[in-house]
């Protein structure tokens, strides 16, 4: 059941991605006319006169994309829910379950941030990530799809929160990654790429993703520590996966400081977001090659 | 962050007066006295530790170190105390790292998190945080408490968040309306004051308005950074107090007792170990029924599971592992006295008697002799059959093996005037006994960090200045906002514009950031 929901969700997201790309391209064409206007405003300090209220009709592709994206979210939500019901606990006990939830989280947070910042163009980059994640989960060994009971150490509600928070943090970092990518694609001076949002907005989105994700990552580490203190008698034991999660958190810590420095905000900060997401992915896949206390979560 | 007015180390604070040029002492005196040299060295050092760039470099270095620590095999902590096992472990790595093994070991790469240079990094970081925190406190406090509320007309001509709005009413009425709108946007209006319009026309009349929100919240950064320092303190707290207990291999045979030692008079008694399996043979649950005695009196009794440790006076007893114990009895042939009778938990692993056998040991003759007990490594063990144990006796002095034999249940062996009997097998519970007062410090630290970050991130401070002057249309309002984290300020100003527009205002100009917001909202719907 949850497998087919995941298939449906992944396919729907692929369609949504198509619509987003269409919208992106349409933006390029639509805005080219207005772009001369906007180029002056990119200067930064000068105050521009308000001309007529710029009221553009919303391109239909954005609406299609958004609707299909919501449908994809529902499928993915059902996939998570069905798995939850099937195993009788929050779905986090192996890579299949965690990956399903990760995909769901990317799509959900993408929708939320796109709505908050009114930037549907992000979807053209978020959807491929969600699809890639979905395909990865679908191609995992079928043994992982079997419902296996939890080993005693994992039977703890703190862990449910620990993993739940991690999934949200990872999802939001995916959005930050997308914003950074688009930031680097967008030109700094001169003529802007009309199909991309302005650098200021992309920087805002990236920063916002860290404002949400960074405290959540700390919470993940702390909840992990509390659980380890109960289960293993040590708050911190440099277990490879927790260390990888710490490295991820530190990277976003560097980003937060970088963002506050004039010379480091901008391109360098964007690269830190990209590195941060690379570390997030490394942490996520860490079960495979890192060993340690988290190995039971792996294959 | 550009031109936000909250730059670090006093950069970019447009509201402040330009700093008076400070005469450089060293530049004046030709030969600086030694005291001056010291102080300038101290100053340089202080400035070095103030730097956010240093902070970033240090955090990045720690990040790299942690990555090495995850990717490179690390020495199990239990080996680190013993030179011989350390050497053996490192030798085992030679096939993988070849000639570099020794160098890598010397650099501490295999025990990275306890290495000197990792600790040094943490120490420098701690200094960095402390100095940086002290250094920026006065400025931040001033920002929070003594913002300049009254500003001149030039203040509004540049900035990331500025707007010019006109209202067809008297300036006094416009000021009234603006104050109302600011309150509706949850800003606290701190200044409403008639001021001179300009030097040339002082009588024309103008108004200055200042409002802000969450002005103390940036100080949350202190909770945050103090929390980080507290984490490091928490990590060494127990060691500082000398009160740490950590026994990772506390094996108690079912039905047996074991004293905790250290400064306690605690004895743990196990009423038995239980394992419950799922139908597929995997463990569903395992637990030990434990009774705790202090000075011979029962003080606690609990079934302890992985997630349910027993806690007594800050000491935690965790269910960590389990295995078999062998009941061994030793009698003196000459006197008939029992010289040893006990359950030997086979809690370790040994490759001395075969492929990785569970092993335990006990001592005889006041510690001069040691007897190792091993059980089969599995059903396919070539030397020991299921149900058998192997015994081997050593002279502790020179680690010389005196004899070695194999026993089945209830079988005996006579060696050196002693009779050894393997009575039966039973289970043991492997507990971990831990006392670390530092954990409390860590919890406090973590609370500081999370609360501090929440204050800074989710209650972003913002400030707004307005100047209202008379114009041809009635009144003209110049607005300017500042916020360290953008903080939706553009959206705030956009909404303020909208509120005023609903009251008949015309928006004349807005800075690009606000304009961009407005455009997006127009396109995508409010
Ligand atoms: C592991 C060490 C550190 C961590 C995890 C850390 C974490 C953070 C976080 C989460 C923030 C954003 C929230 C806030 O403003 O409090 C921040 C800001 C800041 N940190 Fe750190 N910090 C560390 C070390 C340092 C050090 C050593 C310095 C001193 C140079 C420093 C200086 C600053 C400054 C000046 C800000 C404000 C930046 C702004 O205005 O946005 N931090 N830090």
Describe the structure.
The complex is a heterodimer of chains A (299) and B (526). By secondary structure, chain A is an all-alpha fold. Chain A has eight helices and one strand. The longest helix of chain A is centred in the N-terminal third of the chain and has 40 residues, at 2-41. The two termini of chain A are 21 Å apart. With 526 residues, chain B is α+β, with helices and mostly antiparallel strands. Chain B is built from twelve helices and 21 strands. Chain B has helices at 25-28, 34-50, 52-71, 83-91, 94-97, 100-106, 116-145, 171-184, 220-241, 438-458, 489-502, 512-524, and strands at 162-167, 188-195, 206-213, 245-253, 257-259, 266-277, 283-294, 297-304, 310-312, 315-332, 338-345, 348-350, 357-364, 369-374, 389-395, 400-407, 412-415, 418-435, 462-471, 474-482, 506-510. Chain B has a six-stranded antiparallel sheet. In chain B, strands 4, 9, 10, 11, 17 and 18 form a six-stranded antiparallel sheet that branches. The two termini of chain B are 27 Å apart. Residues 1-30 of chain B have low confidence and may be disordered. Chains A and B meet through strand 1, helix 6 and helix 7 of A and helix 3, strand 7, strand 10, strand 18 and helix 10 of B. Strand 1 (48-49) of chain A pairs antiparallel with strand 21 of chain B, so a sheet runs across the interface. The complex binds protoporphyrin IX containing FE. Protoporphyrin IX containing FE sits between chains B (6, 8, 51-52, 55, 59, 125, 128-129, 132, 221, 224-225, 228, 452-453, 456, 484) and A (253, 256-257, 260).
List its traits.
heterodimer, A: mainly alpha, flat, B: 526 residues, 6-stranded antiparallel beta sheet, 33% helix, 33% strand
